[in-house]
Amino acid sequence: MRKIVTSVIAGIGLALACGTSVRAQDKELTIFWAEWDPANYLQELVNDYTAETGVKVTVQTTPWPDFQTKAFTEFNAHGDAYDMVVGDSQWLGAGSTQGHYVDLTDFFNKHKLGDVMAPATIKYYAEYPGGSGKYWAIPLEGDAIGWSYRKDWFEDPKEKEAFKAKYGYDLDVPKTYAQLRDIAEFFHRPDQKRYGVAIYTDNSYDAMAMGVESAIFSYGGDLGDYATYKVDGITNSKEAVAGLEMYKELYKFTPPGWGKTFFVEDNQAITGGLAAMSMNFFAFFPPLVNKATNP
């Protein structure tokens, strides 16, 4: 039985999962990840490794909704289907405390990975518990939420004039959530099949949680104290509540039926001409800069 090396995402990091360690003499290795463009880029990288070493590496993927279920089914079965797993960042606690991840502290320190990785990725994708100096994953892909917007709508002189008359400032790329909210309201025109904004709403995995977190953090709120694990007074602070209320407010300006959406739908809101603005993690942006998928 092989140990799985784990990584954690979205942080994403590469992690070893437990069985026996990956053997140097193995001529084939399998890395398990979710199905998205970064996994394709990882395959390109490991193809270079194969050319140098002769060890064939395959990045095996599965759709995002199935990713956690398949990974943890394999973890709990102590299976050997994968040599490495690109674990999602929120798996770090369960992976390390439940015996699924290998302690990589010695490897991490020997190779001085703390000197070459972004500090935030180490803190949130690799170290557990926080501040312990124990590392269970190697940061692989750091991501952040970005916003796309319809330049043709934003730059239309008539729209700019109407917006200025209504809100008292120039229509431009929003710099605050308050401005984003105004712009979403302005462009929300159901009778024209135009809508203000596309946000994450799916609660079957972490989509809506990540969208809400983005707003909470932007308002100065947080989810808890990472040293003491205290949540009361933090998760429900006035800053966190303000961020949550703003996210709820934005939902009023989404396209119809926007109650279970994630990256695919938010991209389609732009490529299909539905919404003025759309949120997505940057790793999901490739379809937006591809003329074949985004007119």
What's this, in brief?
By secondary structure, the chain is α/β, with parallel strands linked by helices.
Notes on the structure:
The chain is α/β, with parallel strands linked by helices and 295 residues long. The protein folds into 2 domains: 5-141, Periplasmic binding protein-like II (D-Maltodextrin-Binding Protein, domain 2); 145-288, D-Maltodextrin-Binding Protein, domain 2. The chain contains 11 helices and 9 strands. The strands form 2 sheets. The protein has a 6-stranded mixed β-sheet with strand order 2-6-1-5-3-4, sandwiched between helices. It has a 3-stranded mixed β-sheet with strand order 7-9-8. Strand 3, helix 1 and strand 4 (56-62) form a beta-alpha-beta unit. Helix 9 crosses helix 10 (238-251). The model has no long low-confidence stretch (mean pLDDT 91).
Topology:
Layout: E1 5-9, E2 12-16, E3 28-34, H1 37-53, E4 56-62, H2 64-76, E5 84-88, H3 92-97, H4 105-110, H5 119-125, E6 138-141, E7 145-149, H6 151-154, H7 157-167, H8 177-187, E8 195-198, H9 207-218, H10 238-251, H11 263-271, E9 275-281
Parallel strand pairs: 1-5, 1-6, 3-4, 3-5, 8-9
Antiparallel strand pairs: 2-6, 7-9
Helix pairs in contact: 9-10
Any idea what the radius of gyration is?
22 Å
Whole-number tally of structural domains: 2
Report strand order across the widest sheet. Answer: 2-6-1-5-3-4
Q: At the first level of CATH, what is the class of the largest domain?
A: Alpha Beta
Please bin the fraction of helical residues: 25-40%
Q: What is the terminal-to-terminal distance?
A: 49 Å
